User: What shape does this take?
Amino acid sequence: MRKSAPVLAMMLAGTLGLGGCFSAVPDPKVSELDAKYMAMVPQAEIDPHFARYQIDDPTGEAPGTIVVETKQRQLYYVLPGKKAIRYGVSVGDEAFGWTGTAEVARKAEWPAWNPPAEMKKRWPHVHAVEGGPNSPLGARALYLHQNGKDTLYRIHGTNEPEKIGQAVSSGCIRMRNMDVVELYNRVPVGAKVIVR
Assistant: This one.
């Protein structure tokens, strides 16, 4: 039996413990290239706990700030009016997690991936990948700098959407591709990022 949208919303509200203080955020419009590449990336069921919603802001930070709560596997983009958009993410496992304050120094669409030297040492089999559906950076990347230096950490899409909600990366913050496109469209270069 198919449930109506209001019934599903009420079920999700109960599941998420949000009562009446959340609303779904629609998918952004995407280019033909985005649609083509996204169709080539594996799809995964979305746990409602990690779906994209507009909620009451739990961070207390200024509008325009990105806050990543690593233990909750949630990223918040703070909006005016004490609201935020919440996205489910994957984070670094305990050995590779990073916390701190940074800023978005650069943004890229369907970026190429070149593993850092320390990652190549750990895993000699990894190699650079051109931008596109096979890149582990997915549809978009936000490059994080701290005190003017590249942290080598990114907020980016993924070609493994089934891992959203897990601690599996080498420190980067992974998002579903549609979510990272939505965030990318909102965030300017220079935006503050807090990873807790």
Remarks:
- Residues 5-16 form the longest helix (12 residues).
- Residues 1-19 have pLDDT under 50 and may be disordered.
